[in-house]
Amino acid sequence: SMQCFPSLVLALSSLLGALALLQLSLYLRVPSRYGKHEERLCRPRGRLPARCAWFLQELPSFLVPALLLALRSPPRLEPLGCRLLCCLFGWHYFYRTFIYPFFTRGRPFPLQLLFFGTLFCIYNGFLQGYYLIYCAEYPNDWCTDIRFTSGLLLFLLGMGINIHSDLLLRQLRKPGEVTYKIPQGGLFTYVSGANYFGEIVEWFGFAIATWSLPAFAFAFFTLCCIGPRAYHHHRYYLKTFTDYPKSRKALIPFVF
User: Fold this and answer.
1) What's the pLDDT tens digit per position in 56-89?
2) For an engineered disulfide with 61, which of 3, 66, 72, 125 has Cβ 3.0 to 4.6 Å away?
């Protein structure tokens, strides 16, 4: 059966941190080429319908840890805290794979970005799953540790914000519409990237609850990847809509 190699966890986590900095350098000034930013940039060639693209991209993040768990002998997780942490990761990607794509009303997705997104989900799904299933060691009372409980609350808060914000964005469009409108309600009252803010909070909560290098590297990657996108969304709204609320921030309420 597969064994734990701490050096592999360290190497993969370090590479994930380096990829985060690369993402930040690539997309801080110029947004990635999909959605509302595609028209201002050169159109990529092949594209897939948004629902199909999001399903294919997110699926490895659910399947790879499930496969790692199936290969584990004996096939169980101890203690309870470790099982719960695996469930949190699986819960997010179950939603992202099997629920979110079938309700999204986004534009067709570029194949090039789908390819790189799928590679990332395979990579990160392996790293997080491998660490939690084969390497993580937690005390039996980890469920009552302040790191676990505070991280869990942050995770649940972030996921709630993320799902609610996705719902508000979907309600902006009727089926078949591709035009962009000003998001209203929920945390969108304060920030342009409410859905991104929720996901960042979610993964930093997971990192605190897990208290591991792989999870913190993933949270840092999430911040560097979708943080700039929230900033570019904010600029887009300000330029496109003359009546866009000037009090809104890009990502963090009352700050940025």
Assistant:
1) 999 999 999 999 999 887 756 778 888 899 999 9
2) 125
